[in-house]
C-alpha cells in the first residue's frame, strides 16, 4: 500500500498546541487512548495489518525546515523550544496496538508518554478512513471535479450568509485529496467573492494551510481536560486546564472547549478572570441554541457583554446548520463555525466514517503503578465516552447522577 501520511504537519493544529502545553505543564504524564467506531463497522479481513503497516511508516515522517518556518510565521504563540522538540520527534509503532476480532471489528489502543502519543490520534484516524475506502474500492467513485464544485457552492452560501468558517475535517476525511480539494475550492471562492459578509478563515490542517497560504486554526481538544479529570478529578479539571493553558500561551489561543464534563461543572470553574482571559468558548455538543443561551447568561452574570465574545460552533455541522445558527447567534456573540466531515467526506453515495480515538486513562508520572480511568461527559444524551462504571462515578462526583 502507498504511504498515506507523508508530511509531519498533515495534522490538526490543536495536536501541536496541546503537545506544547503538555510538555510545559505535565511532562511526565502517561496516558492510554482507545479507538471507538460508532458505526460498528465490519472492516475487511486483514485491515488491522494494513493499519499497522501505515503506523510503521510514520517513523519516516519528520518535520521539515519548511514546515518549521511556516509554523514560526503563523503560530506566534508557540515558544521556540517546541520546534527543537518537534525536530527531534520520531514516531514509534510500539506505542500502538492494532488488532481485529473474528467479526471484523477494529481495536486500537495507544499507550505511553502523553507528549509522544498525543501526536498519533489525528494521523491514525485519517489513515483508517482513507485506507477503508481504498480497500473496499469505494475510492473509485470519488469525483474530485464534482467535489470541487460542490465545495465551492458550500463556501458561496456560507460567505453570502455572513458565516465565518474554517475546515476541521482532517480526522475523518475521505482522503487527503478530498480535504485538499475542498480547501482549494474555499480559497478560490473567498478570493472571487471578496466583499461578501462572511469569511473563510483557514483550516485546522497545518500542512494544507502551508500549501495554500492560509492560517492554521485550532486550540484544544477534549483530551486535555479529560486527562486532568482522570489525574485530579472532574470537579477541578476545567480550572486546572485553563490555568495550564494560561501558563503556556499567556492569553493566546483563547477559545476554550468547555464540554468535557458538561456545562454545569465548567460554569462553576469559569470565574471572571477566566471569562476575561479567554476570547470565547467552543460549542461541540448539545443543542446549539440552548448551549449559546447558557453562555450568554453566564457572561451576563459576570457583567460581560456576550457580543464581545467569540463562540465557535463545531458539533457535526453542515452548511445548512451553520447558516441557521448564524441567524440567531450573530445578535448574541461573535459566531464562527468549524466544519469537519461535511467538508472533507461528502461524496455522493459514500457513507462517512464515524470514528474517534479518546483518551481513557492517565497518570501524572511513570512512577505510578496504576492509571486513573477517565471519560467524556457529552452534552448530547447517550454520547458519553468511557467505561459505564467510570461515567457513573464521574457523574456522581459532579452531582449529575443518572
Give a written overview of the molecule.
By secondary structure, this protein is an alpha/beta fold. It is built from 17 helices and 11 strands. Strands 5-4-9-8-7-6 form a 6-stranded parallel sheet. A 5-stranded antiparallel sheet has the order 2-3-1-10-11. Helix 1 (about 15-25) packs across helix 11, helix 2 (about 45-55) packs across helix 6 (about 120-135) and helix 7 (about 145-160) crosses helix 8 (about 175-190). The longest helix has 17 residues, at about 145-160. It is globular and about 55 Å long. About 50% of the residues are buried. The model has no long low-confidence stretch (mean pLDDT about 95).
Q: How are the strands of the largest sheet arranged?
A: 5-4-9-8-7-6
Give the overall pLDDT as a whole number: 97
Structural class: alpha/beta
What fraction of residues sit in β-strands?
A: 5-15%
Compressed to H and E, one letter per element, the order equals HEHHHEEHHHEHEHHHEHHEHEHEHEEH
Distance between the termini: 47 Å
Strand tally is 11
Give the uncertain stretches in residue-range form. Answer: none
Biggest sheet: strands, sense, closure?
Answer: 6 strands, parallel
How much helicity do the residues have? Answer: 40-55%
What is Rg?
A: 20 Å
